[in-house]
Design a protein that fits this description.
Elements: H1 12-42, H2 46-53, H3 58-85, H4 90-116, H5 127-149
Length: 150
């Protein structure tokens, strides 16, 4: 027996986008938490040691500041978009970003946002943008692997 639904399904382009966001969140979780767990085994006072060591070198300070400022901008966007599109629990994504990683919770928020947008709207990227995003994704993944295996 088939069930008839009045709710239109997401177009394939938006389902693919949600899949990409989910993949980013999964890779970010695995990559960051493999390092967090390795660090936690090495430091008795994990939380204070971790933050103290983000200030050890100029490179660590640069990356830490970059991530913190990105998290602030992303949080502002998340609250505005959540209110605009009725995405519930926006503060769970933000607080989760502080404890799990903004690289994990921001893509999860983007999935929740996609699910709240008008299902009839399709996503059309120019070929140039799709190719450049694919190149960027490969470069980021290679960099993540290089950092994790370093």
């Amino acid at each position: 027996m088939t069930e008839i639904s009045d709710t239109p399904q997401l177009p394939m382009s938006r389902r693919v986008l949600c899949g990409v966001y989910a993949t980013i969140a999964a890779v970010a979780f695995a990559a960051t938490w493999s390092q967090n767990l390795a660090y936690q085994n090495a430091a008795l006072d994990f939380f204070s040691s971790f933050w103290r060591e983000t200030r050890v070198t100029p490179a660590a300070r640069s990356v830490t500041i970059d991530i913190l400022m990105f998290a602030l901008a992303a949080s502002i966007l998340m609250v505005i978009e959540a209110r605009k599109h009725g995405v519930p629990y926006v503060w769970v994504y933000i607080v989760g970003g502080l404890f799990i990683g903004i690289s994990v919770t921001f893509p999860l928020f983007l999935i929740a946002r996609q699910l709240r947008l008008n299902p009839a709207e399709t996503l059309r990227l120019p070929t140039k943008d799709a190719v450049l995003l694919a190149v960027l994704a490969v470069m980021v993944l290679v960099s993540v692997i290089w950092v994790v295996t370093g």
